[in-house]
Amino acid sequence: MRNFIYHNPTKIIFGENVLHKISAEIPANARIMLTYGGGSIKKNGIYHQVVSVLEDFFFIEFGGIEPNPQYSTLMKAVDLCRKEKIDFLLSVGGGSVLDGTKFIAAASLFDGEPWDILENQLKVTSVIPFGAVLTLPATGSEMNAFAVISRKETGQKLDFGTPPFTYPRFSVLDPNFTRTLPHSQRINGVIDAFVHVTEQYLTFQQNAPLNDRFAEAIMKTLIEEGLNYVNEPENMSVAKNIMWCSTMALNGLIATGLITDWATHKIGHELTVLHNIDHASTLAIVWPGMMRVMSQIKKEKLLQYAERIWDINNGDDEERIEKAISKTEAFFISLGAKTRLSDYKLNKTTIVQVVENLKRNGFVAIGEQKLVTPEKVIAILESRM
Ligand code: NZQ
Ligand code: ZN
Fold first, then answer.
1. Hey, which of 65, 96, 134 would you mutate to test ligand 1's pocket, going by the most ligand atoms within 8 Å of its Cβ?
2. What kind of architecture, by CATH, is found in domain 11-178?
3. Which residues line ligand 1 (CB under 6 A)?
4. Do domains 11-178 and 183-382 have the same CATH topology?
5. Distance from residue 188's CA to the centre of ligand 2 (Å)
6. DSSP 52-116
């Protein structure tokens, strides 16, 4: 393990009917901007509940943050924030609204071209404080400092994170808010959380047995509860477990002291940019290819994964690794995910474009050991046709 400082300042307000507690978390004289997405919160009543809690506060609204939040939309919110002298943001939605809100929080106080925060990774030194009401468990954005922002004009999807500034002050995790999720977003949530864990766990042996067991506990729980969550929208007991898993999967805890991977995500982001495929759906396509092509590099951890997650103890190393990868893909499929490029009618042209885009963004040696080169990306995606 490497040296680390772990400081996660986000207060988690977890459980049913806890939304009212946010009134104690927001300064009484705050000038609030409520941010939301395409309107699901108005249909399912969450908007109404939030507005009731904010009754005694000053607030304005900014809706229309799209899935894979767009820079141009967010810059409109930045203008509004500056004009209205907003000093608190409240995100109500999934990862896209929250990531967008993180960017608005940072860009509004940024002295310079805000796109540089993403493209040139310029550091943010102050943000408008923000809190979150989460309606879609998946990304972990509710308890991490990262955000992923897209810009369709340039065909880019880039991330930034400036801890401690870009952590939410608080996040409300009420399982009731997941009741109206579309079936596809339930599948996405489980897969996103699962792959977040593997991006941190399936690397190389770093002698971090506690981190490993935290990660294994999250994966086991997602496997046990995933299908129930997908099929039983009214089951709040299951929804609570998935919510907590997806938060724990990417709040920094299981990565403490570790070198992590994230190559599956980098490739997935390009598939979203090119074909507007949902974030987690891209991971379900890329993941099996990544594991097969990088299996020698990841061998020790893949064998541990095979044994501890899938109880695979028989066969030689290659056989056990292959069984573990196949079982994982079968798990994704059992949830309802598609795992092939051909499922989206994509062909080799897409592979060329993904590689070009990765090169353009400077991602030519990615993964935990920087061994995922353009040639490897081609092999990974060709195996996913
Ligand atoms: O736009 P609204 O009306 O809110 O509808 C959304 C959207 O259409 C809908 N939805 C959300 N909660 C709902 C609901 N519909 C009915 N009932 C509810 N309770 O679901 C759709 C998808 O929402 P979105 O926020 O886009 O999904 P998700 O939470 O999966 O976020 C995806 C974004 O997060 C980024 C992804 O790249 C993508 O841009 N990620 C962020 C990360 C982070 N900040 O740490 C890490 C992740 O790996 C990921 O990259
Ligand atoms: Zn993800």
1. 96
2. 3-Layer(aba) Sandwich (3.40)
3. 37-40, 44, 67-68, 93-97, 99, 135-136, 138-141, 144, 146-148, 177-178, 180-182, 185, 188, 192, 250, 265, 279
4. no
5. 9
6. HHTTTSEEEEE--PPSS-BHHHHHHHHHHHHHTT--EEEEEESHHHHHHHHHHHHHTT-SS-THH
Residue nearest to atom 7 of ligand 1 (CA): 67
Q: Where are the domains of the chain?
A: 11-178, 183-382
Residue 157 pLDDT class (50, 70, 90 cuts): very high
Q: Which pLDDT tens digit goes with each residue over 69-117?
A: 999 999 999 999 999 999 999 999 999 999 999 999 999 999 999 999 9
Mean pLDDT of 41-66: 98
How many other CB atoms sit within 10 Å of the CB of residue 159? 15
pLDDT in tens, 197-241: 999 999 999 999 999 999 999 999 999 999 999 999 999 999 999
Alpha-carbon distance 108 to 35, whole Å?
14
Query: Does the global pTM surpass 0.90?
Result: yes
Rounded to an integer, what distance in angstroms lies between the CA atom of residue 115 and that of residue 107? 8
* Portion of the chain with pLDDT greater than 70, in percent: 100
Q: Whose CA is nearest to atom 42 of ligand 1?
A: 139
What's the confidence (pLDDT) of residue 180?
98
CATH topology assigned to domain 183-382: Dehydroquinate synthase-like, alpha domain (1.20.1090)
List, as ranges, residues with CB under 5 A of the ion ligand 2. 192
